[in-house]
User: Fold amidophosphoribosyltransferase from Prunus persica.
Amino acid sequence: MAATTTKPSPLSSSLSKPTPLPLTHKTPPSFSPKTLPKPAFPLKTSSLSHTHKASSLTLRSKNPISEFFPANKQNPDGDFIDYDDDDKPREECGVVGIYGDPEASRLCYLALHALQHRGQEGAGIVCVQDDVLQSITGVGLVSEVFNQTKLDQLPGDLAIGHVRYSTAGASMLKNVQPFVAGYRFGSVGVAHNGNLVNYRALRAKLEDTGSIFNTSSDTEVVLHLIAISKHRPFLLRIVDACEQLEGAYSMVFVTKDKLVAVRDPHGFRPLVMGRRSNGSVVFASETCALDLIEATYEREVFPGEVVVVDKEGVQSLCLMSHPQPKQCIFEHIYFALPNSVVFGRSVYESRRAFGEILATEAPVDCDVVIAVPDSGVVAALGYAAKAGVAFQQGLIRSHYVGRTFIEPSQKIRDFGVKLKLSPVRAVLEGKRVVVVDDSIVRGTTSSKIVRLLKEAGAKEVHMRIASPPIIGSCYYGVDTPSSEELISNRMSVEEIREFIGSDSLAFLPIAKLEKMLGNQSPNFCYACFSGKYPVEPREVKVKKVGDFVDDGLNGSFESIGGGWVQANQTQKEEKDKEFEGSVL
Assistant:
């Protein structure tokens, strides 16, 4: 259903005008429901002196992951260990959508390569040819899932793709996106980045009315809501479904003739739009994907916006308005690549500024500045430049290790970290070293890194963290531990320093972070630093455990109950009652 400029949109009664955000591009896009110019191609188809404990946040229940994937636990066979020792929050997904290019699937494949850092455990592409949606998904890296033969099976000029982070192994194949489903008016494919905080209630309600679920992914709920919608046009079905969702979602949908991009009203997760020289339209989680396939960045998909691309052109509509976007600040701290523009800001410039702030707020006499690669490098460059101290490569990261490795019978201390990070003695020996990292989660890896540096001869090790202390779990599409496992939620800065063994420790002050962001500061979500959630979590699905528990089962919904972490206990009963009444 196309909206026009000559008469009110049929959606105007239920859809309001989006709230524009301050962006860096010069010409802000129009948000009135109208048809934009057709594509130009023929279309056939905390402060640094923290001494208090951040204890105000209510602790979640015990993390169920530990029951299935205990840290540093030897495999029963005695040979293999999981040495994935990064101890970092993990972005769940990356998405891409392409309309109007005869090599859509190949371009999608390349764009997913550029987004590989957002998910390494599964990848998939759905392409449209002769009104039929064809899908190939698999476990592993993009280069492992796809080859020339498989891409030849995905012809067409319309495609979407997805990379996913979850547990390794064939058992999670059924949860690899994009998902494709048929309903009475055709077929639809979807790729989703984010997490729905009301997923469990929605799924239970749908199952009560006879819906059957094949996966343990919250994305499947969206397909069910689209299928049962009373609206006829596909666009209105998406709007109807999204109005029932709470939480974070940046999604791309594909039908036989349409590509649709949707972003939740808070804009938690990024989603950008670009265009190639032949006029084909591209959506992606980050601009680095646009760069690789030579697409020019045009703008973000704005919070609460629905963008539809079909033979009529590009149509921009509003899903629902929200007075204050809440974009994930961790995209700039850790997740996104430095060469990306996220939420209208250069990630590189943000991280360099974080390092400069640390050098100003937490100076220390030192001989060399190094980084924990790769995410700490740009902040370390900023720190070194501001402090007037040389930046050197004191830790070398190996990019050729997988998730498991055969450990020798003679145990090696800090084996997992040593596999990935090698100290350079010539840089470190006898030196007072500042080491810059992007964050501290549990603190286990930081302690091993400090020990590694001192064993390599560092005289002093001063840890500088380019983010405020993390005290709260993320409920909006990031895989984080329960709050009781977050070291900053249990210890003061001085206690953490003693735990990791560094000579000094300083975090990026949240007040300075907000000041650096300027008038855009209120548009960001700081829940992991403050425990104050823009969308109050009633539940959260831990996807990796859900995959593990539910795989191969066709049982009840409770069979994946172990994959959930209890929500914030500060909820009021009246909010729960209001929520129950609002579902469907």
